[in-house]
Amino acid sequence: MNIGALDTRISVVTVTGYSINAYGERAADGLNLFSVWAQIERKPGAAMIIGNQEVTVATIIFNVRYSDQTVDIKPDDTIKIGSKSYNIISTHLVGRKDMIKITARHIES
Q: Among 64, 107, 101, which Cα is nearest to 85's?
């Protein structure tokens, strides 16, 4: 893995519970587990209809270094970069504890 390509700081957040926001919608409450440097691979977005609204679903692959923290990332967690949240779909260990590929999605309306 080219360490110089790890140029984006991401936060891994786990859901701790749910609350109701100002609009009466159910919103997840999260706890920031840790932050790491990642390399981002963007895949072409796809248009989908969700709730009678056309949205773009972007698939992103985050490559992070293997560590005791990153090995515990699971699909229930979320990745945050600034104000954007990415729902984790899967994680994949590459090589012999070299790096972890995290596949995630972001829905843009």
A: 107
Return the amino acid letter for 10: I
Domain that holds residue 25: 3-108
CATH number of the domain that 99 lies in? 2.40.10.270
| Three-state DSSP state, 57 | strand
* pLDDT tens track for 35-74: 999 999 988 777 777 777 777 788 999 999 999 999 999 9
Confidence grade of residue 21 (pLDDT, cut at 50, 70, 90)? confident
- How far apart (Å, rounded) are the C-alpha atoms in residues 101 and 103? 6
Q: What is the dihedral of CA 24, 26, 29, 30, to 10 degrees?
A: -130
Q: Which residue has the tokens 């701790």?
A: 16
Which one-letter DSSP state was computed for residue 22? T
CA distance from start to end of the chain: 34
